[in-house]
Amino acid sequence: MTRSMLPVPMALLTMLSALSVGYSVPVMAQEDEQAVETPLYDPSEDYDEDEDVMVVRATRGRMDQGMSAFKRGDYVTAEIEFKKNLRCVERVERLEDFAVEQAQSNAVTAESQPSAPQTEPRVVPSGTASGFQAQKDGKDVAERTCERADWQVYMIAMSQLKLGRLEEAKENFYRVIRMSKDPLLFDAHYRIGLLEVLDDNFDEADDRLKQLKAFQRRCRKQGKYCETTEELKVAVDTLELAIREGRAAS
Questions:
Q1: Which of 49, 122, 180, 230 is the most buried (most CB within 10 A)?
Q2: What is the pLDDT at residue 46?
Q3: Average pLDDT along the chain
Q4: Rounded to an integer, what distance in angstroms lies between the CA atom of residue 241 and that of residue 10?
Q5: For residue 133, how many other CB atoms are within 10 A of its CB?
Q6: Predicted confidence band at 153 (pLDDT cuts at 50, 70, 90)?
Q7: CATH numeric code, 10-109+124-249
Q8: Which residue ranges make up each domain of the chain?
Q9: Average pLDDT for 48-68
Q10: CA-to-CA dists, residue 117 to 97, 107, 108, 146, 196, angstroms
């Protein structure tokens, strides 16, 4: 739903903090049988009948220490845990790069010395134990997730946003869209747009709106196979209204 007028900046701060429009996890969740449905935010907690708050269905995600902390509102711990996840992803990627380099080196050695024994480096793929460490506590919460760097940075930004550290959050949302062109991460574009409106950077907000509309056109072409039709409409309509009212108020 939309408002006839959008108070700036308080309504934007409410939207930034309250809405969970991001939808990058379902792809990862479908690939892992251990993934669980994880509501990142319960809109009923902050619902105010006088404020016409929009309700957007929550995302799904793998339940690890970071997601568990985020879900219970411990955003300081969540940020720390998602940063640990990111370091784990980077470590796995370095190991995989080393494995490729070692394989190439072994191939060159084998060509120049046919009698030399061939060795193959062993690196556990990121989708197995190294990607999702098996240690769990009694509540079935994974110790660490070691894949999807873009998702880890997104959740770092979300944690910083909840903590009110808007500049850091915006920087990391920009980092997300540089890392990945995945349309399922459209929520990063949406939140950047709102943050730019707060800073009166309307041209930058327009850029994010254009990207959201591009995702929306692609989604429409997919028809019933697009999972984010409703969320994209909310994001586009909300950001468009925020830019219009922000410009009028500046």
A1: 180
A2: 36
A3: 75
A4: 14
A5: 16
A6: very high
A7: 1.25.40.10
A8: 10-109+124-249
A9: 54
A10: 22, 11, 12, 33, 59
Task: In whole angstroms, give the CA distance from residue 108 to residue 39.
Answer: 51
212 CB-contact burial (10 Å; exposed 0-12 / middle 13-18 / buried 19+): buried
Count other C-beta atoms under 10 Å from residue 141's C-beta. 18
Residue 24's pLDDT is 37
Q: What share of the chain is helix, strand, coil (3-state, %, to 5)?
A: 60, 5, 35
Residue with tokens 């730019």: 196
pTM of the model: 0.70
CB burial string 57-80: b at 16+ within 10 A, e below: ebbbbbbbbbbbbbbeeebebbbb
- pLDDT of the residue at 53: 34
Q: How far apart are CA 62 and CA 24, in angstroms?
A: 11
Question: What CA–CA distance (Å, rounded) separates 132 from 121?
Answer: 21
Q: What's the whole-number mean pLDDT along residues 216-234?
A: 93
89 contacts 148 by C-beta, under 8 angstroms: yes
